[in-house]
Amino acid sequence: MHQLAQQIQDEFPAGFVGATEWRGDVAVTVTRDALHSIAEFLRNEPGMDFDYIVHVSSVDWPDDEKRFEVVWEFYSIRKRRRIRLKTRVPESDCIVDSLTDLWRGADFMEREVYDMMGIRFRNHPDLRRILMPDDYTEGYPLRKDFPLRGKGWRDTFEFLDEVPQ
Amino acid sequence: MAFEDQRTTVYKVDPEHPESKTLPTLRTEELLLNMGPQHPSTHGVLKVILELEGERLVKSTPVMGYLHRGVEKLAEDSTYHQFIPHTDRLDYVCAMYNNFAYCRAVEKLLDLKVPDRAEYLRTIVAEVQRIIGHQFWVSAQALDIGAMTIFFYCFRDREILLDWFDELCGARLTTSWYRIGGVERDLTPSLIEKLKAFLDYFPPKIDEYQVFLEKNRIWLGRTKGVAVISAEDAISFGLSGPTLRGSGVDYDLRKYEPYGAYPKCEFSVPVGKNGDTYDRYWIRMMELYESVKIIRQCLEQMEEGPIMADVPSVTLPPKQRVFTNLEAMIQQFKLFSEGFKAPPGEIYCGTEAHKGELGFHIVSTGGSKPYRLKIRAPSFIHMGAFDHMARGYMISDACTIFGTYDIVMGECDR
User: Fold this and answer.
1) CA dihedral sign of residues A102, A106, A111, A112
2) pLDDT exceeds cutoff 80 at B3
3) Distance (Å, whole) CA A67 – CA A61
4) Which of B46, B61, B68, B244 is the best substitution to test chain A (most A C-beta atoms within 10 A)?
5) A155 CB-near residues (< 8 Å, 6+ apart)
6) How open is the CA angle B328-B334-B338, to the nearest 5 degrees?
7) What are phi and psi of B188, to 5 degrees?
8) Which of A29, B86, B137, B320 is most buried by its number of CB atoms within 10 A?
């Protein structure tokens, strides 16, 4: 196991779920409850020093018990290394702690995840849709059960057999 | 009489004591102003709701998504090769660098090694694209804040490079020249000659751009000390590229996570001090010189060799063989109809585009299409810092602050 993952496991044995290292990327999966304290550890612990947030993403696994996976990517400007933090949430209760209090840039990134996948962030200052219109009610476009051609009022269009003269 | 009425609206007259005049009563309230979505300086379609106190910006709320085309959703339904043209349309000003960032991400997923010559070619074209991007930025930014002349000088030189792209791949803006595992075609002797001529022609022109702006008091007044962000805040907001380096943070992936032919080239990364728009302008000007230097070194070091990795299950066969050899034709047909299978896994790969870190986070489940593809667009993340950076400035500075990120809404809204 990578040394970074080992450190997280030593510090948070209950919150640690697993770690992978593939193609040079270190990814650590943690429980949802321990997420905020682990993120705080990564941000503030001098040995970790992950001061830069790269992006927040989410993956939809419809067949799994815990359907959604939220992914954070952090970088350390001084130590020049990356880490990926992941956590899983079930569809019935898809809410995770917001990390806006640690990285201010997480604000827009989390809003995008909410907009596209419908995962809510606890303690987010302004959780609204960001790319889709505010009054969009047709669901969350990046979920796997959302059709590629879109849905909603377009479904009610009637096909014309021939172009009216 | 009309004259008298006007006076009474200014001076409130107490009806019981008509002689006494009180101080003028002014109505004060915060004003909401919609800037955009059709404003010429928003570089695309962007609306910002500005809360104003007098002419000062109290709060600004960007409203984005007018150019949202669901590119990440489209990626889930197209093969890895098919997605390359979609990346052109992200940041349509600098299509080559988007292709580069995407191809690098897929190569990381496949663990594919690109031949040396292809790496040099990619670096050369990426740096040409960086020159175009910075020229575009300086001309558009100056135009937004009232200096028009430089626009024509930059576009004159940009045109030479766009014509060069046209000769290279047949398109000026949406190029799609990069391929997974290499590049589409080699530089011809004529292209190399033209590029060398440009490298001799261009450095004096950069000096010319600087003369236009650095002796211009309006430009200095409107960029120095405007859109200031401290290094700590810039890091916390996840800013990247010249926007971050302007605040004095030395963060350039070309240096610290080297890719392409950058590790073989000598170049420096200019870093600013004050974190204002002027420092970012200065960084971009210095990067033009560095780009010229990198291209020169690449042209010198580049040797003959293949321009595409030879992994038949993934990379495309050379075009000449497709038309003469049955196996190559089958290979080409299968790659474009079915695509290739990527190993299951998850990667993130960031590339230093001229705007900042352009990253692709790809999740693969072993199919020929990405299961999930997330684009880390620098323009989007920079917009997150807009409110923080705009507070307290005058309303006319809002244009400068949009411009300072080098924002392109196609990339921001995806």
Assistant:
1) negative
2) no
3) 5
4) B68
5) none
6) 160
7) -85, 160
8) B137
Which residues of chain B does A22 touch, with a Cβ-Cβ cutoff of 8 Å?
Answer: 345-347
CA distances from B145 to B53, B213, B222, B410 (A): 22, 12, 7, 22
Residue B355 DSSP symbol: S
Å between B238 CA and nearest CA of chain A: 5
Instruction: Show the domain range for A75.
Output: 3-156
SS3 assignment, position B14: coil
Distance, in Å, from the CA atom of B104 to the CA atom of B343, rounded to the nearest integer, reads: 16
Partner residue facing A54 (CB), from B109, B238, B345: B238
In a domain, A65, yes or no: yes
Domain count, chain A: 1
CATH of domain B61-413: 1.10.645.10
Contact present, A103 and B236 (Cβ < 8 Å): yes
Q: What is the ipTM of this complex?
A: 0.87
A164 to chain B nearest CA, in Å?
31
> Does residue A163 belong to any structural domain of this protein?
no
Look at A105 and B68 and tell me if their CB atoms are within 8 Å. Answer: no
Question: Which pLDDT score is estimated for B105?
Answer: 92
Are A104 and B388 a contacting pair, CB within 8 Å? yes
Based on its alpha-carbon atoms, the radius of gyration of chain B, rounded to whole angstroms, reads 26
Structure-block tokens of residue B82: 């098919």
Structure tokens at B351: 């590339």
CA atoms within 13 A on the CB side of B243: 34
Q: What is the pLDDT of residues B115-129, one digit of tens each?
A: 989 999 999 999 999
Residue B14 has pLDDT above 80, yes or no: no
Residue A83 lies in a domain: yes
Classify residue A131: in a domain, yes or no. yes
CATH number at residue A122: 3.30.460.80
Q: Which residues pair with B364 in a beta bridge?
A: B345
**Between B2 and A28, the higher pLDDT residue:** A28
- Measured between its terminal Cα atoms, the distance across chain A in Å is 71
B35-68 tens-digit pLDDT: 878 777 667 788 888 888 888 888 888 888 888 8
Is A56 in contact with A113 (CB distance < 8 Å)? yes
Task: For B236-246, give one letter per residue: b (16+ CB within 10 A) or e.
Answer: bbbbbbbbbbb
The stretch A142-160 carries a mean pLDDT of 76
A165: distance to nearest CA of chain B, Å?
33
**Per residue in A71-120, pLDDT tens?**
999 998 888 888 999 999 998 888 998 989 888 889 899 999 999 888 98
Q: Is the distance from CB of B269 to CB of B250 less than 8 angstroms? A: yes
